[in-house]
TrEMBL record:
Gene3D superfamilies: 3.10.450.50. This is SnoaL-like polyketide cyclase. It comes from Streptomyces pini. It comes from the Bacteria. GO terms for biological process: polyketide metabolic process. InterPro entries: Cyclase_SnoaL-like, NTF2-like_dom_sf. Pfam families: SnoaL.
Length: 257
């Protein structure tokens, strides 16, 4: 445990994108390359060369080059793959072998490799977005949003009375939508990066209540949409919603084209 390389490894925080459909994230494989070099800029250029040379061939999905704040000669490369098998395919590319030999020459000593099988991949903001969709919308419990959203939360949705509304107004207007159409959302994809979470959604429901003067038809509805959430300190500060409103109006007979 007194190896410097081991100490550096434990200091790395790696956030893998979450491509789950509402359950746990997809488990991946990560390779950490630990280098000591006086040519940090050359190591960075080598990564650019490798990305260009392996276009259409590589199996890596995410790469990071990082420098130690307390030791500028210590450089760490982190590369993510869908699986160990995909990483092995990548390592056998002639372009990978060529860039690796150039990397060795740029380093002061032989780089070390750490292979990590990801056992837990959890995007915390994505979990909050999933809770919002499942409990606030599908669970019809709009008050749950009070604990999930910031005090100055803003919602952007062209189907509401204004493109930007605060939380209290958003709850009031969305209550009417939920009661009128009884939608149940399915998370088809959930992507997280930085302070943003994006959800690709589908929904089913039934026009069972009045909506802006449109009397209930009892017709079944289906549709798709996207939602993007912006987070501050683990809470939703802003959201953008886009759904196929025209398709919904066609299904209930409000428009004939």
């Amino acid at each position: 445990m007194d190896s410097p390389d081991i100490i550096h490894m434990t200091a790395i925080t790696w956030e893998c994108p979450d491509f789950s459909d509402g359950g746990g994230g997809t488990m991946t494989f990560i390779q950490v390359i630990d280098c000591r070099t006086h040519q940090a800029e050359e190591v960075d250029r080598l990564m650019d060369d490798w990305v260009r040379a392996t276009q259409g061939k590589r199996t890596a999905t995410h790469s990071v080059v990082a420098r130690d704040r307390s030791d500028p000669d210590h450089v760490v490369e982190i590369v993510e793959f869908p699986s160990y098998e995909e990483a092995m395919r990548n390592s056998h590319l002639p372009e990978t072998d060529r860039i690796f030999h150039r990397l060795v020459k740029a380093c002061d000593q032989e780089p070390t490799f750490t292979d990590l099988e990801v056992s837990r991949d959890e995007q915390l903001n994505a979990g909050v977005a999933r809770t919002f969709i499942e409990e606030v919308i599908n669970g019809r419990n709009l008050d749950v949003a009070d604990g999930l959203c910031t005090d100055d939360y803003r919602e952007h949705d062209p189907s509401l009375s204004s493109y930007e509304v605060r939380l209290a107004q958003a709850k009031e207007e969305n209550q009417e939508i939920l009661e009128a159409f009884q939608p149940v959302l399915v998370i088809e994809d959930l992507f997280a990066e930085g302070d943003r979470v994006c959800a690709r959604l589908s929904y089913t429901g039934r026009h069972s209540g009045a909506y802006r003067g449109l009397e209930p038809t009892g017709k079944k509805i289906t549709g798709t949409g996207h939602a993007t959430f912006r987070f501050e300190d683990g809470k939703i500060a802003e959201s953008w919603w886009n759904t196929d409103d025209l398709g919904l109006l066609r299904q209930v007979g409000a428009v004939g084209f």
